[in-house]
Amino acid sequence: MITVKNCISGYGNTEILHSISFIVQPGIVCGLFGPNGSGKTTLIKCCCGSHPYNGSIMIDGSEIKELSPRELARVVAYVPQSHNPMFPFSVKEVVLMGRNPYISPISGPKEEDLIRTEDILKDLNIIDIADNPYTELSGGQRQLVILARALNQDTQVMLLDEPSSALDFKNQIRLWKLLRKLARNGKTIFACTHDPNHISWFCDSAVIMKTGTILTYGLSKETITKENMTELYGDLCTVEEMKNRVVVIPA
Amino acid sequence: MPRLSVLFPERRKKRLILIALLILLIVTMMVTITIGVYPISVQDVYLTIFRHLGFGSIPELTYDIIVWEIRIPRVILAALVGGALAISGAVFQGVFRNPLVEPYIMGVSSGAAVGAGIAIMFGLMIFSLQGSAFLFGVLAACITYMVASNKRETPLVNIILAGIAVTALFDAVLAILKTIAPYGKLQDLIFWLMGGFGGTKWDDVSAIGIQLLVGMIITCFLGWQLNLLAIGEEDARSLGLQVGRIKTLLLGIAVFLTSISVSTVGIIAWVGLIMPHVSRMLLGPDHRILLPASVLIGAIFLVLCDTIARTLISAEIPISIITSVIGGPYLLYLIRRNRSLYFR
After folding, report:
1. pLDDT tens for residues B177-222?
2. DSSP string over B109-168
3. How far is the C-alpha of B180 from the C-alpha of A81, rounded, in Å?
4. What is the pLDDT of residues B268-290, one digit of tens each?
5. What is the mean pLDDT of chain B?
6. Residues of chain A below pLDDT 50
7. What pLDDT, on the 0 to 100 scale, is given for residue B9?
8. Strand, helix or coil at A249?
9. What residues of A are in contact with residue B233 (Cβ under 8 Å)?
10. B239 closest CB neighbour out of A71, A92, A97
11. Beta-carbon separation of A85 and B280 below 8 A
């Protein structure tokens, strides 16, 4: 469970997040949605402790700015947008790094960590590419590897920054289905996206941002509405219902 | 019986390669001790060594001096400095996620040389030669880092450009020192600037050997953390690493190792850049293996280069010429091969 109360943050003198408050319930997929520049990435970074903030962000009952990096990494896992790494670490080496919060810095990973890594590689069906260099993977595979690394942190809450933006259609659907499966198994998934249809198709609930404030939050159906889309995009798009699902289409 | 992971079967093999490299280093040192301008038979070389280990007959005095007082300390120092420069390069490349950096390229070597030069010129008692070199090495690293970094990141090109500028700056300071040095000091300074391992004594080995060895061993234990840093600072932080602390510790030790080496043998280019690459090609990017491998391969490389430097012609060739003859073409090859990666 994520509880954000009066959170203020920014860069230098520019305030990006203006006193934000919302709650993400445990065991669900919650989407963080808003146009470019609305502060999604800043909010995600505040929630994973990599950006300073005023106010309160509680994850599973702990105020995250009071945790050490190691404690924090056992509470919340962060999946960054996929990037190009410089060194050709193998897939299994990258996934093993997720065990870092439990590993003694001097002696390195233990047998138990290797076994957990092996299991996660099998679960996500990437055991076949375990020996491949991470640098030579496709975008979809790379995203899965980073997700596996985050799973290896064994946290209750996972934060994802634009997890599907670099993926093709097939991989987008696969990824969101995987996230839903994880939520059913008890994880809390908080993922930002700039596609409103991903919210209505794949997320249980949503937090919608507009220029550093929360426009609304709640169940997906209640947040992706004609009024809210008009508020964000003017008359650019319209909302219709198809086969019991809400679809946002260009007007 | 508890289940065992089958995920990393190659780690055993890699450890064996490390042991093989260690044996290769020892063999290289044993062989190069027998080579020199002054002809001494292999048998006499080892008789001399055995004598110092406490058994055998007393060797001829000339042999004793050449083998025990000249060749052996020199080979040991070359191995230590080679290892130190190579591991420093590996640390810089990992921390900055930039396969083209090393302390020399970031201006640390030139900074350390200025520090050592100032200590020689002004004979500052508070700053020993090494202390002063370290101080200026840190200064150079800080300037390059601050100039090159942009929004917590240090893009590849920025680091190299800043490094060129900082190196030029400190080289100019060194040139000024030479110009204004009084006659007696100038001699000391020039002699020191020539660098190399010529005239190494046991005192030199004992003075810096322990420091280099301790620095290298501590660094080898930080391999796991360096792996995380090498993936990216933001990632490392989210995985629970104290990024600032570990980064400062690693870079501090690397600058220390480089400065101590420079203050003793002068600037030796290329070892720090190339040896980590060779190790990475041989054993992969895992720093838990890569760091000790760099030490061993760097040590072997510099012992061989120094042997060429002292035996190829009757006069001594500056060792940087040897390392550059090998290093320059290799860098060209590296850039050519990876140009799409470096310049996108």
Report:
1. 989 888 888 888 887 887 788 888 898 898 899 999 999 999 999 9
2. HHHHHHHHHHHHHH--SSS-HHHHHHHHHHHHHHHHHHHH-BTTB--HHHHHHHHHHHHH
3. 55
4. 988 999 999 999 988 989 999 99
5. 89
6. none
7. 84
8. strand
9. none
10. A97
11. no
> What secondary structure does DSSP assign to A180-208, as a single string?
HHHHHTT-EEEEEES-HHHHHHH-SEEEE
Range of the domain at A58: 2-250
Q: Are A213 and A226 in contact (CB under 8 A)?
A: no
Q: What's the confidence (pLDDT) of residue A75?
A: 94
Distance separating alpha carbons of residues B139 and B105, to the nearest angstrom: 14
Number of domains in chain A: 1
ipTM of the prediction? 0.89
Q: CA-CA distance, B293 to B280, in Å (whole number)? A: 9
- Condensed to tens digits (0 to 9), the pLDDT of residues B52-75 reads 888 777 777 888 888 888 999 999
Its pTM stands at: 0.91
Q: Which domains does chain B have, with CATH numbers?
A: 80-313 (1.10.3470.10)
**Best residue of A79, A99, A100, A158 to probe chain B, by most B CBs closer than 10 Å:** A100
* Contact criterion met (CB below 8 Å) for B198 and B316: yes
Cβ-based contacts of B238 with chain A (< 8 Å): 48-50, 73, 77-78, 80
How many inter-chain contacts (A to B, CB under 8 Å) are there? 96
Report pLDDT for B50: 84
Q: Per-residue pLDDT tens for A129-143?
A: 999 999 888 888 898
H-assigned helices in A203-243: 220-223, 226-233
From CA B96, how far away is CA B203, in angstroms rounded? 35
CATH of the domain at A163: 3.40.50.300
Give, in degrees to the nearest 5, the angle at Cα A165 between B154 and A42: 55
Chain centroid offset of residue A118 CA: 23
- Which of B102, B51, B70, B32 has its CA nearest to residue B274? B102
Chain B residue closest to A47 (CA)?
B238
Cβ within 8 Å, pair A87-B99: yes
